[in-house]
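Handout, page 2. Input:
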Amino acid sequence: MSHPNDPTPPLFGDFHPISLEVLNAKAAMLERLDNKYVVRENVLRAALAELAQHFDVLEIGGKRAFTYETCYFDDDGLHSYYDHHQGRRRRCKVRVRKYTDAQLCFVEVKLKDKRGITVKKRLDYTVDKYGTLDEQACAHIDRSYRNLYGEPFRHRLQPVIEMRYQRVTLVAREGGERMTIDGKLLFSKGERSLSTRPDVFIVETKSANGNGIADKILRALHQHPTSRCSKYCVGMAALEAVARHNKFLPALRKLEVVPERPCAPDRFSRLPFAPLLQAGLH
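Output:
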């Protein structure tokens, strides 16, 4: 990830490759406990030296770092954002994610169950629908919500922010644990955009109990999970698209994207969406 055209060798060259098929068979982890860490490159390098003894790296067509594009959806009241900000146990995030290199696309609904475990429900989608939600997507969102919470999803969604980043995925050789390493984040909303520093990474560990091998390795390097490090919420706050963001300040500070000034309470409702998207809710 040190250079956009050749990101792999400096950081991930010592890992054994694993194919997407094998990764999915070993560690789909659609129900998991997540921890997120914001780390600098020097810390990441130290961690990777140990991680390479326990994890393999996803490799497709000789590549190990892949570009992701994600469009997040919310309603006029930004319930998804503020439910997270207020720490509500019942919350729902909706996004359309495009795997740029593979030209794959999915509608993803992320929910929290009573145990605090993240439940992700995914629907295959066509790339040309990126940035929109059609009837099938809306039905998938409602079905996922009803199945977990026992009531319909009542919010009318529209696209609110887009982001792009590079991701490397590691999977443990034993135990089904997985982790992702995201760098070069670019947040876009309307005419505004903001990038993170090239030596800053968001590392997310995904395990059955939230205390896997990767967590232990990072703890040994005096790294601790960064609370409320949702890329959606951090991006909305950093681009000054929300009225309140104090609960996300620890993550904003670590990423060095603290907004310069507070937003007007209703400013988010008047911001146009990024021109990269073609349409809103269908």
